Amino acid sequence: MDNIINLQKKIVPELTDLLVLRYQIMRQVSHEHPIGRRALASKLGLSERVLRAQVDFLKKSGLLDFSSSGMTVTEEGTDILRELADYVRKLQGISYLEKQLSDSLKIGRVVILPGDSDQEEVVKREIGRTAARILSKLLGDGKAHIVAVSGGTTMAAMAANISGSQPNTVVVPARGGLGDNVELQANTIATVLAQKLGASYRQLYVPDSVSEDILNSILKEDIGVKAVVDVIKKADILVHGMGQASVMARHRRLSPEILDKLEADGAVGEAFGQYCALDGKQVYMTNNAGLMLQDLENIGVIIGVAGGKSKAAAILSVIRASRQDILVTDEAAALEMVRMAGIAN
Predict the structure, then answer these.
(1) Crossing angle of helices 13-32/121-139, nearest 10°?
(2) DSSP code, position 178
(3) CA angle 278-122-132, nearest 5°?
(4) Cβ neighbourhood burial of 227 (10 Å; 0-12, 13-18, 19+)
(5) How many angstroms separate the CA atoms of 174 and 272, rounded?
(6) How is residue 295 annotated by DSSP?
(7) pLDDT digits over 253-288, tens only?
(8) For a designed S-S bond to 168, which of 144, 172, 222, 261 qualifies (C-beta 3.0 to 4.6 A apart)?
(9) DSSP 8-state code for residue 35
(10) Helix orientation angle between 153-160 and 121-139, rounded to the nearest 10 degrees
(11) Would you state the pLDDT for residue 157?
(12) What CA–CA distance (Å, rounded) separates 73 from 233?
């Protein structure tokens, strides 16, 4: 396949651009269906005239359906879209980029989606959908599992895109609550994921902002909380996001003094309430009743999920601070990590 792709790029490079454009159109419709032509053109940054020619072709090919409510991808289109994803990644040199990151950062498997989550919401959803497929495959071995999940928008996309029947699985939050957006908290995502899988779940109601003394008192006196923490510590699969240190610190309402300290110490990434510099050094941690970076060594499979060029430094810092078995990210973040890490092309 690689030889065919190289020949195509050299002899008919314009076909490469056209194929990628039609893939992007189908991918966007798949996530937004039903969607009108004007809304789709706006999402993709295309003129309606350019878009009309492409969607008309896809309709004639039996890949898109039109109705009064908008466009949808047909069953055949869904199958082709799934098969086309890997081809587009190879076409854009993404497979080589995956190997670069996997080898240099010592990650077992890197999966990169075309695009930039910062610019295209659909890419973030695609990252979530890909993470959901990977998790489903891990859970399909027929064994009982404890799955720990963190919070965040990409993790919410993962939970929204999973399905199956896993009655022997228990889903738990990797840590307690965070901020005011309940939909994006680990507890909520764990609940949604469990319901989609027909699994059971546990919830952990311990906020991040409590002092160490209060946290120790809760763990000592509240048998229910301690029981949940014990289950979390036994997780054999972890799916987690990675955040920018400054953004997560504000979400957690850390004091101005701590914000200044994080900046002075070069904190760029955050995971599980622990803040890391670009070299992976931990510079600050909040009190946490759930998982911590040092707990990751005891977990069977760890899946890191994050994308966007703006998050490249954060992702790189967490990777360097902890073991990651699988990374699901996007092209923009991957390219920026390659640049920041000085990985040779």
Answers:
(1) 80
(2) -
(3) 75
(4) exposed
(5) 7
(6) G
(7) 888 999 999 999 999 999 988 999 999 999 998 877
(8) 144
(9) B
(10) 60
(11) 92
(12) 42
